[in-house]
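A.,

Following up on our hallway conversation. Structure tokens first:
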């Protein structure tokens, strides 16, 4: 059923106010098809909402918001692997917990990432050395124009760092209805190369961690380092870590020798956006009801009564300061609506 003048404040993790002219929660593919059809007939722009953890609402929406809440999952167990086909409305962290409880390896490092499964391939969610692209077999889509269903393989999704075909040529053209992941039943590839995770395991004297150990370590680290959106409105990292030419890094290192950098390809490196923001004096910065988090400046926060416009203004200030100090243009990871 389509609702009119729907208040979206509680439907995104930034908890900023905005109203959608029309809104519909869908729980089946057929319902999704009907809503897409209505938007087409009414010539209304269609906006797809999942868990709302990667969206900043900056204004009221003259759109029909389709809230993808299609639940359910299919399991195909083989000798050494299990193929899980998970519908778009399943909560990502509950899927990760399910996998760990059932000894399925591959996504334990992605614990506690908010949001729904359907959005996970869009920015190729990643954390602590793992991305969904590492285990994703295929994505099933509804074409918003023809309403036909089709499937893309991993390579057809063109995954990159926080990037995929869904942010490029298919942006705004498809609804992701399910995601298939290929997980290990045994001989799990345990990844605890990230310093924070390794230190957490060391703290508990764990030398040969299981997937459950890695999961618990990631949960502890994230709880310690990142603000809980239910307490302090935010959408995780607001900016991507920029990829810059090695020559620019060398120039920056003359003044900032401790800048963290990671190999990207032969010519480019990825640098920590948090370092850049901290070094333009914006760590823990607060302007009225919005600011940057005191421990993690990459996370912009709403202290309670902030608006999307105020968050966006702060983002622009940060972009300008980083550009003038480092010559780097930060790009947003969060979707601005
Ligand atoms: C505290 C916190 C920590 C976070 N940590 C991480 C992290 O470690 N790594 C990481 O990668 N991300 C992180 N994020 C970002 C976010 O959780 C992910 O990007 C998540 O996948 C977004 O899912 P969602 O369902 O909330 O998407 P939404 O915010 O609802 O939507 C995001 C975008 O996807 C589109 N979309 C959503 N569902 C569909 C669908 N079914 N079909 C087509 N388009 C769709 C929307 O239109 C929108 O453009 C974090 C966010 C928070 C708040």
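Then the amino acids I'd put at each of the 337 positions:
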């Amino acid at each position: 059923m389509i609702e009119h003048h729907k208040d979206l404040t509680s439907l995104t993790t930034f908890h900023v106010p905005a109203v959608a002219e029309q809104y519909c929660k869908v729980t089946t593919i057929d319902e999704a098809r009907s809503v897409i059809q209505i938007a087409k007939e009414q010539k209304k722009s269609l906006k797809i909402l999942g868990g709302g953890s990667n969206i900043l609402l900056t204004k009221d929406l003259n759109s029909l918001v389709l809230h993808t809440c299609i639940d359910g999952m299919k399991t195909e167990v083989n000798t050494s692997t299990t193929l899980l086909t998970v519908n778009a409305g399943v909560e990502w962290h509950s899927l990760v917990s399910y996998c760990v409880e059932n000894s399925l390896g591959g996504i334990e490092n992605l614990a506690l990432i908010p949001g729904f499964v359907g959005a996970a391939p869009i920015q190729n969610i990643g954390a602590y050395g793992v991305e969904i692209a590492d285990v994703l077999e295929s994505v099933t889509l509804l074409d918003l124009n023809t309403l036909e269903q089709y499937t893309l393989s991993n390579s057809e999704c063109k995954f990159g760092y926080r990037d995929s075909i869904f942010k490029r040529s298919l942006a705004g053209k498809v609804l992701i209805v399910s995601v298939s992941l290929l997980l290990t039943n045994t001989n799990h590839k345990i990844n605890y190369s990230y310093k924070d995770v390794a230190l957490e395991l060391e703290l508990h004297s764990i030398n040969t961690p299981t997937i459950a150990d890695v999961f618990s370590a990631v949960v502890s680290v994230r709880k310690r380092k990142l603000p809980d959106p239910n307490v302090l409105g935010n959408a995780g990292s607001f900016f991507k870590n920029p990829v810059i030419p090695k020559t620019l890094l060398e120039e920056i290192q003359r003044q900032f020798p401790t800048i963290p950098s990671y190999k990207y390809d032969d010519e480019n490196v990825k640098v920590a956006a948090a370092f850049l923001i901290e070094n333009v004096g914006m760590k823990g910065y607060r302007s009225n009801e919005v600011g940057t988090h005191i421990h993690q400046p990459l996370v912009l926060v709403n202290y309670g009564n902030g608006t999307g416009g105020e968050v966006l203004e702060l983002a622009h200030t940060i972009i300008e300061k980083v550009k003038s100090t480092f010559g780097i243009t930060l790009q947003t990871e969060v979707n601005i609506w």
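The mean pLDDT is 97. Curious whether your intuition agrees with the design.

B.
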